[in-house]
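Handout, section B. The chain below has 189 residues.
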Amino acid sequence: MLTKEKKYISAEEYLKSEREAETKNEYYDGEVFSMSGASLNHNIITTNILGSLFNKLKDSSCRPFGSDMRINVSENGLFTYPDISVVCGNMEFYDDETDTLLNPVVIFEVLSKSTHNYDRGGKFKLYRDIKTLKEYVLVTQDSVNIEHYQRQPDGKWLLNEIRILESELIIDSIKCKLNISDIYSGIKF
């Protein structure tokens, strides 16, 4: 049986191609991976979170970004587009193009059927190498379920799961509280 040989490219080749591309692709370990589109619920939730973060953080040193801000995990080489990332203080970039952030403090991913295992597993493992990352939030789009991971002083990650619409998500690293009902506003389950 013939197998197609994988084409490995450098990070520089990936970035050159990605900056000219009309679609977004992730990059890891020399390989490029196409990203799928998002559902209506995914887009509503992402917009709700981004809007709430903007309003709550506008007078702080923290800035939220949507999925067009690429993140590079310099410790392991991953280039990816989280649904939402938050950086505080000075922004550090991969190069002078200022389109690839290195130092997020919080990352949000809205789970989909095609990505939930990767977002919880392999991707989270790669994200944990980001020294500045303090909190990782996974949001389920078809039920009220938020998995909030916080890095502890000893480096371990603590999970707080939220399943009640009338509760709050407290993000300590950016001194921010988000109402769960605001995150899911406009979603029909």
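Note. The chain has one domain: 38-183. Compare this with the example in section A.
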